[in-house]
Model the fold of this input.
Amino acid sequence: MPDFPIVDAHVHLYDPGVLHYSWTKGNPVLDRAWLLPDLDRARGPVRIETIVFVEVAADAGLYLQEASYVAGLAERDPRVGAMVAAAPLERGAAVTSDLEKLAAHALTRGIRRRIEDETEAGFCLRPGFVEGVRLLARFDLAFDLCVRHWQLADAVELVRRCPGIRIVLDHIGKPPIREGVMDPWRSHIKALSELPDVWCKLSGVVTEADREHWTRDQLRPYVDHVIECFGFDRLMYGSDWPVSEQTHRYPEWVAILDEVTAGCSADEVRRLFRETAIGFYRLDRASDAIR
Done:
């Protein structure tokens, strides 16, 4: 385990008693409240200094309420160091007023509009969507890019159409680990890594494998490829907790990455587990703690 407090760049906190999350209904693991006291019980020996909250797909129209709710959580616990809020970027210029409201929260560092559940090819390349992503520059906000492996070609083109926007790929692009397939995911990851202003989260990997019978050996080629492409300056650790609870306990993913980076320098390990996220999400509190 890292011998220093880490920064978790991808955590979901939610309470169905406050806001509605229809996607969790019927899921025996996720259909309940998951909050910081639960994370404290789940993290085991892992010391977490700061987390980045990432929107949790609250029901339609609740994204502004979700942001206000999380801002309230941060007032009570300073470990919530940044927020990636949801917004309907496909609305183009019409989303400006929502972005203004979201940016008014000091916690907001980025926006996520989940593309992964869209079935239409080219959805994220619609003119309105591209315009919405470009608008983020006006508010100094980053974009969390959440796609499945079959959408990566469109994701590459989206990035090309949005120069200057800081973008981080969630969950290494959700590769088909369950099927043991590397291509064309592998080439798309390489193409993304060659574009400026693109980072990647080592998060949400285990849940793309066979959820009952996954092995570390199955994960390793995908993790190794991402490290080779992005390097530690543009790669950050994320737990995807509590979604991760469906397949493994919190310390296990940390241990896997600790094992993968066993031959790396102490500086590279620190970049993976904290420094890259601090820089990307501008986590001033965490940076002050380091100094």
